[in-house]
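User: ok so my PI wants both of these folded by tonight, can you help

Assistant: No problem, let's get them done. Here's the first:
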Amino acid sequence: MVVTILLGALGLLALAYAILLWRTAAAKGAGRPSLEGIGLGAITNFFDTLGIGSFAPTTAWIKLRRLTPDSYIPATLNSGHALPAMAQSGIFLVLLGVSVDPVLLASCVGAAVLGAAVGAPLVLKAPVRLVQGMIGLALVIAACLYAAANLDLMPVGGSASGLEGPALWLAIAAHFVLGALMTFGIGLYAPSLILLSLMGLDPRLAFPVMASACAFLMPVGAFRFVRSERIDLRLVLGLALGGVPAVLIAAFVVKELPVEMLRWGVVAVALYAAVLLLLAAIRPSQAEDAET
């Protein structure tokens, strides 16, 4: 029942967000999607579906190519990857959702959404240097997690399909924090997977939890982000248009690829981009220039 309700709500949310995104972009004269954004959305969301993650490689590419000001990155990430994340969530819910404890699933999703509702307005008002520092830190964390995965240092998890008592409450609180941090561009997937696995949850069942949390929290922030000035709507449209079909191809056609070497590549690029962002964050003049 919970999975059915979530799928129905997800479909309505996706439709409402897609309409808002298109109308807002058209009204602002940004209705033509970026071709580079389409390619970037396709590649990052294809590998995101296979377990790589989309925020860190997208952020690194945006920074290296200087596609948009640093302060635009959180809104662009959350808004552009929202529809692909919703597609992923629907797939994981259909394939694995019936095995996940519905209380854990619904409570973590709800907590992440509340966190995003708190975080989104903070991102739009945050100083550029703070945004740069947060994104730079996020890239460093992501690089460390990718390296840990390649070195088999990630928790193996247990066989539980749900959590109870203090563990459940800790998971709920953690997803509230992760939901708020995601609006700043800090990906939720890896921290959520690690936390739930350490608590004994079957790692396979963590996927519908984290995918659904992202699918619902990203449009919550995006509804606010797309109306703001700190966003690149042409890039957002490109990420969405390229991302959704790539998710379907990865999930139903390719399904699995050896991604270890790709992770090492992401580690190197993410660390390089992180250094650029962190240096910009501690240099006031560069932070001010990033607004223009």
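One down. Here's the second:
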Amino acid sequence: MLNTTAHSHPDSCPALVLNADFRPLSYYPLSLWSWQDAIKAVFLERVNIVSEYETEVHSPSLAVRLPSVVSLKTYIKPAVYPAFTRFNVFLRDRFECQYCGNNNDLTFDHLVPRSRGGQTTWENVVTACSPCNLKKGGQLPKKSGMWPAQKPVRPTVYQLHKNGRLFPPNYLHESWQDYLYWDTELEP
């Protein structure tokens, strides 16, 4: 499928992917597929098209409007706990240094330093800006006098999704609005 019509280039037409219960698979990062992946899933009958763009792609024998929202035909049970990654630690801590509140030049800090046997776990790692991380160095919180704003805990996927709603993506197509809930007070 090479030729296109309408105003948008296909690469600027991602599809919002909803689970079978019409909730996004994830909020942050927002569950999006490229137009190619969305079309492939439609032809493999793995998704239902919920909404479409005006943009079409054409093959010699077929014209197809690009899906803007698709829902999976089979429900995928979401994981309860997210993977431990640097990004997820930052998201748990809302992209703020847990010592000073700065949101620039972020790293992560081990409360009990690795040099003192501290492990890289949810309960021992917090988001820290580089200056605070350097200031604390290899010291324990009591010795450094630096305590995180919130106790580090293992978050649930729901808690990360809730935090992710505080950082809506730069691009939201109007057809997505009914499926995205940026109000942080909503329950799962």
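The two ends are 39 Å apart (CA to CA). The chain has a mean pLDDT of 88. Good luck tonight!
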